[in-house]
């Protein structure tokens, strides 16, 4: 299961006691969840007014982070194309998969010094996520341009013989080249008209070389024939051929142009693959910041709470919610226990719309909810 519940509860005499109580209630006898301590450092609290305002700002930042992370996941799925099943394993945070990152979470002291105010840390996070968003937009735009150009080239090499590129069909030996008088034309003939073509092509115009036609390629409906004639007869031949439903393609054999087209397709394909870059999903520590702010607002000062990460046993989620309510209902007697709630939260899908007597966030590490 990729769903986690991040909760916090005030310390008893010590935070360890709070942890021990949770472990006894949820794991010792009934296997309701797998639990990990979630380590949040001692951040600078500031004033109550600042915390209240920051709580609202972090909620907005959460929504932004969630939208960016979903865009990153969608971009990964687009770029990986036929390997979409590998998207999850490539969505890494600090070099590890999301579940490992969450269960072994460590605050990044270098990026987010705890001597900074909470507001400053939130602004650092906001700037970094904005940068990720801007980088993603630029990369997605480049990828879409490459993909569009490649698709245009691929379309030229597919479809009807009347419209598709002939460069990958014909060979040098199919043509009379470097002749002052003679030229080889390519003609699309419906399959139902093959016999008519063989009977009439030599007489469609004067100066057609006898027995010069060859079938070079077939698709579902038509065949591509070569025919050699004198250059001065081209216009007359083209006109008479059209009357018989034989279509002369505008094509001149040019090795350099054909080579350039193939090289362009290879380059575009290579450049498209280069657009795959593992995204930076961990340049924000919005989750612990929200838990810290919410816990201080809920439980008061001095700071004394234990954050705990629970991975519910899927079969026992309702029972786990009931046990947590019994364990913490004394914290807020007016709080209604809402069993089986569904709340999503940013960055890793985290948000707070339901109210419990304890601080609660649902974290979903599965970012691949694509239609």
TrEMBL record:
InterPro entries xrefs = ATPase_V1-cplx_csu, Vac_ATP_synth_c_sf
Q: Calcium: present as a keyword of the record?
A: no
Which keywords accompany this UniProt record?
Acetylation, Hydrogen ion transport, Ion transport, Transport
For this UniProt entry, what's an example GO CC term?
vacuolar proton-transporting V-type ATPase, V1 domain
SUPFAM superfamilies cross-referenced by the UniProt entry: Vacuolar ATP synthase subunit C
Transmembrane stretches, start-end: none
Whether Metal-binding counts among this entry's keywords is: no
Gene Ontology molecular functions: proton-transporting ATPase activity, rotational mechanism
Subunit record text? V-ATPase is a heteromultimeric enzyme made up of two complexes: the ATP-hydrolytic V1 complex and the proton translocation V0 complex. The V1 complex consists of three catalytic AB heterodimers that form a heterohexamer, three peripheral stalks each consisting of EG heterodimers, one central rotor including subunits D and F, and the regulatory subunits C and H. The proton translocation complex V0 consists of the proton transport subunit a, a ring of proteolipid subunits c9c'', rotary subunit d, subunits e and f, and two accessory subunits.
- Tell me the protein family, please: Belongs to the V-ATPase C subunit family.
**What does this chain do?**
Subunit of the V1 complex of vacuolar(H+)-ATPase (V-ATPase), a multisubunit enzyme composed of a peripheral complex (V1) that hydrolyzes ATP and a membrane integral complex (V0) that translocates protons. V-ATPase is responsible for acidifying and maintaining the pH of intracellular compartments and in some cell types, is targeted to the plasma membrane, where it is responsible for acidifying the extracellular environment. Subunit C is necessary for the assembly of the catalytic sector of the enzyme and is likely to have a specific function in its catalytic activity.
Q: What is this protein called?
A: V-type proton ATPase subunit C
What is the native source organism of this protein? Answer: Electrophorus electricus (Electric eel)
The beginning of the lineage is: Eukaryota, Metazoa, Chordata, Craniata, Vertebrata
- The gene for this chain is atp6v1c1a
């Amino acid at each position: 299961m990729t769903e986690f519940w991040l909760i916090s509860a005030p310390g008893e005499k010590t935070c360890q006691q709070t942890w021990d109580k949770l472990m006894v209630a949820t794991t010792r006898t009934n296997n309701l969840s797998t639990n990990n301590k979630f380590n949040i450092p001692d951040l600078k609290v500031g004033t109550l007014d600042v915390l209240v305002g920051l709580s609202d700002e972090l909620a907005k930042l959460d929504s932004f982070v969630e939208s960016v992370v979903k865009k990153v996941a969608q971009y990964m799925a687009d770029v990986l194309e036929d390997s979409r099943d590998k998207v999850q394993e490539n969505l890494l945070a600090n070099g590890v998969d999301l579940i490992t990152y969450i269960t072994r979470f460590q605050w990044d002291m270098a990026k987010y010094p705890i001597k900074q105010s909470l507001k400053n840390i939130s602004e650092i996070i906001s700037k970094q996520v904005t940068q990720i968003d801007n980088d993603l937009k630029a990369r997605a735009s480049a990828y879409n341009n490459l993909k569009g150009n490649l698709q245009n080239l691929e379309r030229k090499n597919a479809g009807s013989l009347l419209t598709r590129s002939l460069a990958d069909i014909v060979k040098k030996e199919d043509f009379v080249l470097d002749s002052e008088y003679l030229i080889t034309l390519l003609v699309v003939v419906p399959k139902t008209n093959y016999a008519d073509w063989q009977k009439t092509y030599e007489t469609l115009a004067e100066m057609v070389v006898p027995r010069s036609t060859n079938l070079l390629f077939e698709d579902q409906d038509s065949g591509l024939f070569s025919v050699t004639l004198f250059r001065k007869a081209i216009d007359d031949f083209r006109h008479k051929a059209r009357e018989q439903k034989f279509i002369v393609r505008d094509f001149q054999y040019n090795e350099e142009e054909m080579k350039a087209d193939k090289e362009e397709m290879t380059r575009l394909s290579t450049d498209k693959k280069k657009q795959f870059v593992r995204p930076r999903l961990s340049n924000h520590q919005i989750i612990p910041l929200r838990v810290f702010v919410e816990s201080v607002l809920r439980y008061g000062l001095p700071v004394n709470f234990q954050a705990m990460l629970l991975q519910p046993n899927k079969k026992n989620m309702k029972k786990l919610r009931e046990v947590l309510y019994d364990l913490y209902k004394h914290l807020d007697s007016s709080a209604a226990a809402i069993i089986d709630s569904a709340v999503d939260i940013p960055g890793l899908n985290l948000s707070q719309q339901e109210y419990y007597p304890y601080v609660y966030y649902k974290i979903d590490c599965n970012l691949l909810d694509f239609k």
